[in-house]
Amino acid sequence: MTPEAGGGLPALAVGLWTANMLLDTCGQLAFKAAAQADARAGTGLARWRWMLGRPWLWIGVGCYAAEFLVWLAFLSLVPLSDGVLLGSINIVVVMLAGRLLFAEALSPLRLAGILLVTAGVAVVGLQA
């Protein structure tokens, strides 16, 4: 890895990291939207068939396929230990997006977790 002047991640690595966060978050949200059942979904195998017919499921699969390629490119630019730690910010972004789009609860413990993960990613990002 060749840091830019002043340290930090190269611009390409930052772009790939951002794309990874966006694709992971979009994939997770799409899967959540596909899994939300209503009376039409039924139960058991019928529910799975119903989900397979929803575009959200396939949007999620597409996001994950693209994320896989972006992740490989990102890991080619940074050490694995840094990449995995920086990738953990996805958890925070997904939780916040779940709160905004699906009104999911953020308990005080989850908020503390968000702050700790964010602080850890910031420390790693400054050192990378």
SSE blueprint and pairings:
Layout: H1 11-35, H2 44-52, H3 55-75, H4 80-87, H5 89-102, H6 108-127
Helix pairs in contact: 1-3, 1-5, 4-6, 5-6
Can you characterise this structure?
- The chain is mainly α.
- It has one domain (11-127).
- Helices cover 76% and strands 0% of the residues.
- The protein has helices at residues 11-35, 44-52, 55-75, 80-87, 89-102, 108-127.
- Helix 1 crosses helix 5 and helix 4 runs antiparallel to helix 6 (108-127).
- The termini are close together.
Quick structural summary:
The chain is mostly helical. Helix content is 76%, strand content 0%. It has one domain.
**pLDDT under 50 segments (min length 5)?**
1-6
- Helical segment tally? 6
**Outline type:** flat
What is the β-strand count? Answer: 0
Mean pLDDT: 87
Distance between the termini: 9 Å
Query: Residue share in helices?
Result: over 70%
* Number of spatially distinct domains: 1
Helix and strand string, N-terminal first?
HHHHHH
Rg from Cα: 17 Å
β-strand percent reads under 5%
Index terms:
single chain; 128 residues; mainly alpha; 0% strand
